[in-house]
Amino acid sequence: MPRLDARLKLVAAEIRGKIHADIGSDHGHLLAALLSADRIERGIAVENKLQPYRNSSATLERLNAEVRLGEGMDVIEENEIDSLSICGMGGQSIVRILSEHPNRLPKQLVLQPNQAIASVRQWARDNGYWLTDEKCTGTKRRFEVLVFSRFGPPHDPVYQKLNEVGLDESMGLMFGPWFLLRKDERLLQRLAEEQRYLQSKQNLTQTSRARVETIRRLLSSDHFLSR
């Protein structure tokens, strides 16, 4: 069974469903691990380039899985899968994939964006997916894993919980509502470091100035001062 790194171990721990699809599977290690551990019954790997397609095909050859060559959800049928993962892509690429065939998306999504994470949370907020959990690796580089379930309206209650402790939705979208509610120490340390760095710079852009102000309000809130 392939050994998963810390990032993919977090993803694997969250997956529930008989048939699971992994988009951008690369070497197919996540699906191989899930199948070998009987966490899923069948896997579908989706690759849009020939070499990753060959890599995943070799890994999954003797397992109950198939590899499809194509773009994102283009090669997934409606109601075909129970859960979906997309890992190691930018947030905007993930949002594009999710937006192209919304009728083909399963109830559970496990996503690991490398950047523009707020755009993924915003997409889910706008499309009836509730953020049921979010976790991060403890390694030097922080990888965030977001777990969503489709509930539809009303809006995701985790953002109401933020309001109840004096934080606002924009903070949750930017930094993660569950991380903020749990007073995640690694996140707070990283934000304090970012605040010092940005404050030391001259001629900040409007976006950077707004981010510094958001971080200042967050770190000085009663929610975090009381920890």
Automatic annotation (TrEMBL):
Annotated TM spans: none
GO molecular function: tRNA (adenine(22)-N1)-methyltransferase activity
Entry-linked InterPro entries: SAM-dependent_MTases_sf, TrmK
Name this polypeptide is given: SAM-dependent methyltransferase
Species this protein is from: Rhodopirellula baltica (strain DSM 10527 / NCIMB 13988 / SH1)
